[in-house]
Design a protein that fits this description.
Blueprint lengths: L5 E2 L5 H5 L6 H17 L3 E5 L21 H11 L9 H11 L5 E4 L5 H5 L6 E3 L6 E4 L5 E3 L14 E5 L6 E4 L10 H13 L2 E5 L5 E2 L7 H4 L4 E5 L12 E3 L3 H12 L9 H53 L1
Parallel strand pairs: 2-3, 2-9, 3-4, 9-11, 11-12
Antiparallel strand pairs: 1-10, 5-6, 5-8, 7-8
The structure holds zinc ion.
């Protein structure tokens, strides 16, 4: 199966500018329908794209202010240096609440900005299909390392070595971000596919579903006749024909209403990335302490053994001498 990342539906100049907004009354009606669909569902899966990170200050590729021009791309690169200043949006934090309450069972994202991770969504409840800017992993033992900086520094496609080494086995570390024509992470894709097939409701939030193969996942259960699809996006998409509901509003405006209807509030944000880094440093420290202790013990054992050998040779000397006496 081809699981390489491709831009399946490149935007035309006109499409790039077309955004649609529901009026207030329509939006409220649609939110009611959305709530009803979510409440009726048994296995609700969310699928998120760049649209949910715009209010976090991350420009996306597809919106009118997106990164289609090279000038905008340069702007993003400059901004990336300060990416740790980006904070989860209300939508990120709202999704976390919905997951905590088990209203949403699984999350799939094509964003690599790590904001779902930083808001606290557990890794076993999420597929980051295009990787995670803050994570690099060991090519030898597989250990994941979290950084306060962007881990990718290679400029060419298919090159991912970061130049850093694993704290545990000394293996080379690789960044985890996926570029066009590169393979998606197999396990993340498998889980995403499994959950989309199982889902009776998939809500696509802030994605125009242009990038394959991820864009084929949300409509899987609808195509099989088992589930429903909701699209929350300002632009039209090639998968709109499968949707039971199309919501045209800004991401956080929808989340604000959704949380209110569910009677939920978001927690004060605490950066999970910091926790990961602290845990990782603690583990490294423990390992180093253990190694120091072991090498100290080895040294002591060696010294004891040498002393013992010395004593034995002393006593054999004395017995020799006694014999000779
Ligand atoms: Zn390693």
């Amino acid at each position: 199966m081809e699981i390489k990342m491709k831009n399946e539906f490149p935007l035309t100049k006109e499409e790039e500018l077309d955004e649609f907004y529901d009026d207030e009354e329509t939006l409220n009606e649609k939110i009611q329908k959305l709530i009803q669909l979510i409440k009726e569902s048994k296995h609700c899966v969310f699928f998120t794209g760049a649209g949910i990170s715009i209010s976090s200050g991350i420009p996306d590729l597809m919106s009118p202010n997106g990164l289609l021009g090279s000038r905008r791309k340069r702007e993003l690169r400059l901004k990336e240096k300060e990416f740790w200043k980006w904070k989860p949006s209300l939508t990120h934090l709202g999704i976390l609440e919905l997951m905590k309450k088990k209203i949403v069972k699984y999350l799939i994202t094509i964003n690599l900005d790590a904001l779902h991770m930083r808001s606290g969504v557990p890794f076993n409840k999420m597929s980051e299909l295009h990787g995670n800017t803050n994570m690099e992993y060991c090519t030898k033992c597989g250990t994941k390392f979290f950084r306060l900086f962007k881990t990718r520094n290679a400029l060419k496609k298919n090159l991912h070595l970061t130049g850093r080494k694993c704290d545990y086995c000394g293996g080379d570390l690789m960044d985890s971000t996926i570029n066009y024509d590169e393979k998606l992470p197999e396990e993340a894709y498998r889980l995403a596919e499994e959950n989309c097939e199982k889902a009776d409701l998939v809500v696509v939030w802030g994605s125009s579903l242009r990038i394959s193969p991820a864009n084929s996942l949300p409509s899987k259960s609808v195509e099989k006749g088992n589930g429903k699809l909701v699209m929350i996006n300002l632009q039209k998409t090639h998968k709109d024909k499968y949707a039971s509901l199309l919501v045209r509003a800004k991401s956080d405006d929808v989340m604000k209403r959704l949380l209110k209807e569910f009677g939920l509030e978001v927690d004060i944000w605490r950066d999970k990335l910091i926790d990961f880094i602290l845990e990782q440093n603690e583990k490294k420290e423990k390992k180093e302490n253990k190694e120091n202790k072991e090498s100290k013990e080895n040294k002591e054992n060696k010294e004891n053994k040498e002393n013992l050998e010395l004593r034995i040779s002393d006593s054999s000397d004395s017995s020799d001498s006694s014999d000779s006496n």
